[in-house]
Here is the input.
Amino acid sequence: MLDLPSVLPLAWTLLGVGIAAGIGYLICGPARYRQLTRIINVQTAAGQDETENADDQDDNVWSHQGASIHCPTISVVAFGKPDTDQIGAFLHGIADQDYPNVEIIIVVDGSAREASNLAETFDGAYPDLYFTFVPPEAQNLSRRKLGNTMGIKKATGDIILTTLTNIEIPSRQWLSLMAGQFTGPDVEIVLGGACMDLRGLRGPKRWYRRFDTLLTVARWMLAAIDGRPYRGDGANLAFRRDLFFRNSGYGNNYYLHSGDDDIFVSQVATATNSRFQFARQARVLVDWGEGTRRQWISLKQRYRFASRFLNAGPRLRQGVIDVMLWLCTLSLAACVALSLCTIAQRPLVPLQLILPGVAMACLLALWGLQIALYRLMAACLGSPRLWWAVPLFYLLRAPADILFALRYRRSSRRNFTYRR
Here is the structure.
């Protein structure tokens, strides 16, 4: 039989540990989403102001932060399948950009005949448009990195922007906002916002996958804001051409299929030479169509595999945040359970409900803040605004990542180019 006087110190200790862990978790984790949303809103508002001031500009200048400055040529290197409709929609979006000096290199993941047919289809329709291809017989290498390298070698612009042809271009300002971050010669790389279009997912797991994707994007965005960039998204990544060749391109990770937007960024980006552009007008949406589920699994597995080649700091910080969440939840839940079990064995005294009441109120406050801050960020990044599943998903995320790693551990060897 539990004795209240002997249990009381333990219950109060659990309450204190739970509150301390909860405060630490909120400060290091969800509370930082307010900072992210605030910066995105500021950049979005600045982009709207630039649109209003962009009239009557010369062909070789564009307005940025109230000043008209010379604009360097941007070489857009887009990798994609030989899909005429998809490439046509992409080229139409690029042609509609308000940035004047744009060069387009389409890297076709197909045969020379397919690339030639596409070149004939769009011949004369768009100025400064070039096609190249990655032949199907090219094996034991990363087709994406090979394609980007071929496109960058063909490019003549000082600024390279790598992307995909299956993206949804957010606005006419996309390229000008990305270029506007190159404010001087010391700025060599700009991380742009990009999200995977998960609207095509079906089944009960789609809600968790959207939740997990949003938190992953928010984590590398916050790292960039803190001046510790370790990853970007290859669908919206801009850098100076000479930076790419100074780094020997992707040569440091040529033996991996992945690495074009995480290992590469971690190698070349620093707090001083990197900037970010997360405004809504510059955030692209990547549409994988019917292959969305398969692509989500593939990308998650690749990013997890590539993380072993990155700085361990972001993973350790996330691990500490997960531990604090579990410690807070278990401590408060144990405090409530222990107090109620003790009270149930004796006549009820109202004052005895204070301890479990405080612990339950702290749990409800934690869950409420998780939901509110997640919904704030989800609305800002265009993701579904979940409700009561949010606290459960937060708890399940760490175990789910472990199970995911165990399930796909045998496929990790496929990330090496010599395995295919």
